[in-house]
Amino acid sequence: KLMNINYLGSVYPSRAVITTMKERRVGRIVFVSSQAGQLGLFGFTAYSSSKFAIRGLAEALQMEVKPYNVYVTVAYPPDTDTPGLAEENKTKVKALKKEILMDMPTPLETRLISETTAICKPEHVAKQIVKDAIQGNFNSSIGSDGYMLSSLTCGMAPVTSITEGLQQ
Q1: CB within 8 Å of 110: residues ≥ 6 apart
Q2: SS3 for 29?
Q3: What CATH number is given to the structural domain containing 150?
Q4: Which residues are catalytic?
Q5: Which one has a higher pLDDT value, 121 or 95?
């Protein structure tokens, strides 16, 4: 289900516009992954892998479309105050109550991981993603912890500045 929503929900719209962008020889595609899409996380197996697939799509697509003056940005936002996060948190609370009632071990690691970053405002996240896309950055991260995570997990991500290349 998450692959359909996260990955294919990125593939299909891109396919719909890429031909026109290549013909016009201009374009910008922005994918939204997640900080949890930059590495595998305990308790987030399905989510992390579906968001990491977006990163792979973005890296490969950037190489293919660059000769046509089409560029890709992939955003790695942290937890953001959205209806989706509110729904996810309800599920976490229900799962925790069930584990306590059934005397099951609580996925402490999972809870600790999701509590390590502050919840961001959607407006702040959106402004940063748009700013990074306009500047031509391949990676878009929020805050200093997001920047460090992007730098530490850069892999073969395209470098869009000399400074970024040296840091990686």
Answers
A1: 41, 42, 43, 44
A2: strand
A3: 3.40.50.720
A4: 33, 47, 51
A5: 121
Whether 126 maps to a domain, the answer reads yes
Q: How many CB atoms lie within 10 A of CB 100?
A: 10
3-class DSSP state of 31: strand
- Who's near 49: CB < 8 A, 6+ residues apart? 2, 3, 40
For residue 107, being part of any structural domain is answered with no
Total domains present in the chain:
1
Confidence at 84, pLDDT banded by 50, 70, 90:
confident
Cβ proximity of 10 and 55 under 8 Å: no
- Per-residue DSSP letter, 5: I
pTM of the model: 0.77
Residue 101 in this model has a pLDDT that exceeds 60: no
Distance CA 132, CA 91 (A): 32
Q: Is position 5 within any domain?
A: no
4 falls within a domain: no
* Residue recorded with tokens 């509110």: 86
- Residue pLDDT, tens place only, 24-67: 999 999 999 988 888 877 777 888 899 999 999 999 999 999 99
* CB-count burial class (<10 Å; 0-12, 13-18, 19+) for 139: buried
List the domain range (segments joined by +) for residue 65: 25-79+122-167
